[in-house]
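ENTRY TYPE: paired fold submission
RECORD: A
CONTENT: sequence, then structure tokens
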Amino acid sequence: MKFWIAAGVIAALGLGGCQKKAETPAGTASTSRAPHGKGRYIGVGIYAPSQMWEQIVVADADAPKDPAAALPAEDDEIIVVLDSNTGDLRQCGNLSGACIVMNPWAKPVAISHAAPVLLGKHAAQLDEEAEAAAKVAETKARNWLRTK
């Protein structure tokens, strides 16, 4: 009796290891590097856009033709994914669809999508504007108090 149980377990283990591999045409390699049953894109995360995301300059060729279309400044979230086929790391706005791509190991991507991206203003310029606006508001408040 123990012999048959042992033989059954060995047979089950032996047959369990037999799995049919995915067939590809002769002489070709599979184009997907993603694990079987998984998608091409791997989620990295969803992030809040910074003030710098709002400064992204959209190339004329990529600019939306419809004036009602969202712009990068209107994005609520930045979705970051990794393309498992190419190795590209893509950051895309959820409303505008504006994307920037980074992959230092691959051929160059279109300049309008490559990092470093073109910005309307740099962080230092935005900080200077905020400081200037705060000084103007402070001066106005002092002048108003002096008139009272």
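RECORD: B
CONTENT: sequence, then structure tokens
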Amino acid sequence: MGRHLTNISLAARSGERVLTNELDLLEELPPFPAYVLPPGAFPGFSAVSTGGSMLGTEGIAMVEYLYRPDYDLRGRMVAVSSTSPADGNELHRESPMWWASGTVRVDEILTGDFPFDAGVVGAVGARYSGEAMAEVEGHPCQLQRWTTIPEHALEDALSVVRVRAPESWVTVWSNSYTVEEVEALVPRLRRVDPDLVKELSSPPGIG
């Protein structure tokens, strides 16, 4: 069921920018509403874009902005992924590990294919840590917190916060920050627009 997280992480840690369907996040707007941590909100910006979908649809199903705050390819990492609304809604219907239903208890561990976005999946156990609310650009947004279990398939335990942002599904994850620290980044998210693309592509604004 799709590619595994390690594929995209290895590319990111190697310093490569993964381009699919010729989408360059430093030059082009995503084809659906997407969010990013703008310059000044978090250090170490780089860009990764990925097309395709584990749901079998064509075109760009997700975009991801990557941050390496230590400027060390082996160090800490934060990613902000936006999933196309159609794919996110489909995952909402089909995957209890995409968005936990009201029957999932806090601290309950679910196992299976854990979708990080519409194109990256890890076969892991993940602990559900409950829901909260946050504001994104003045809009109240529901979010859910997850933490993957390190003894499962991935090298690191990951902190994952899923956000139902306006017109988009946004996932903020990290291999090195706590889920509380990742959640604290959510109010800093901004929707990508032409002016923000210019900020992201400007060297003085990166990091």
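NOTES ON RECORD B: The CA atoms of residues 160 and 173 lie 4 Å apart. The two ends are 35 Å apart (CA to CA).
STATUS: closed
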